[in-house]
Every structure is written in structure tokens, then in C-alpha cells.
Amino acid sequence: MIITITRCLNEVNNIERFLKGYDFSDLIIVSDGGSTDGSIEMLTGRDKVKLLHFPEHEIINGYYWNPDNSHFNFIIDAAKEYDPDWIILDDMDDVPNALLRENARLILNTCDKTQVNAFRLYMWGDNQYFPKMNNYFDNKYKSLWAWRGCHAHKDLYLLSK
User: Fold this and answer.
1) CATH topology of domain 2-160
2) What are the structural domain ranges in the chain?
3) Over the stretch 9-31, which tens digit does the pLDDT of each residue have?
4) String of DSSP letters for 9-60
5) pLDDT by residue (tens digit) across 48-73?
6) Residue 160 β-bridge partners
7) How would you classify the pairing of strands 2-8 and 27-32?
């Protein structure tokens, strides 16, 4: 079983693209952190979508924010309840490219490793890119895309505690 997990906060403009990008998944778990833009309504009742509500939030400089660490742990714990073979973590505004999407099941089903890395290149226009946008978790996980369900908390969970 392949489960894709993502967090959502007012992502109505990205939902359709994200669900299409991960339609190869057996289940997509979306943890909503308090959307007010119609995201919840758009996700409710979808095939292969499990919608969760994450209640924790902060107001930082006047902006509504869900704490990253506890939100990641919340959605990872939810995915682990299904005992998946693979867990994919992605942001709602990102999707795999066509080649990765078309071959995702084959890659994951034949992989003998504990994680699969997918490097991203964030583009601006036709010839400019932002190499430092991949710096996530202090460069430790900048390319993590999917990991075996049994390893979900060995690195990511401990990092975010």
C-alpha cells in the first residue's frame, strides 16, 4: 500500500492538481489545519482521500500558522495506522513530474532501499531557478520523497520532536 500524506491550509487552488499528481497512491491523507477557503468542502467525500482535522495553531505576526513539527507527527502517525508499504510526503502545492508519476509504483515496488529521493528544481521563468529552496530540515532531508512505512519515525519523527 502506498499512502501519500500532505498538510492543507487554504489550498483550494492546489487540491485538484495535487490529487491528480498522486492518483497512483492507494490513499491520500490530508491533514487540514483550519482552512476557510472551501478546501474542506472540496476534499470531503473524495475517493481515496482521508481528511483529518489538525486543531493546533499559532498566530505569528498576525498570520495563522500550524506548527510544523506537531503537524508532521500528527499526519505520520495517521498514515502508520494503515501499516503502509510506503509513505510519500509532499506539500499540497507540489506534485511529481510526469515521469516520476508514471513510474512511481514500479519504482517503489522494486526498490530494496528504505527511502526514495526525488530532487526538485524550483523554477522561475524559463531559465532561472532557486537552488536554496530545497534546503529543508537543515539540508538533511532536502530530497526525501518516500520512505517505507516501517521506517516512518526512525528519522523524520525524531527530527521533529
Assistant:
1) Spore Coat Polysaccharide Biosynthesis Protein SpsA; Chain A (3.90.550)
2) 2-160
3) 999 999 999 999 999 999 999 99
4) SS-TTTHHHHHHHTTTSSEEEEEES---SSHHHHHTT-TTEEEEE----EEE
5) 999 999 988 888 888 877 878 888 88
6) none
7) parallel
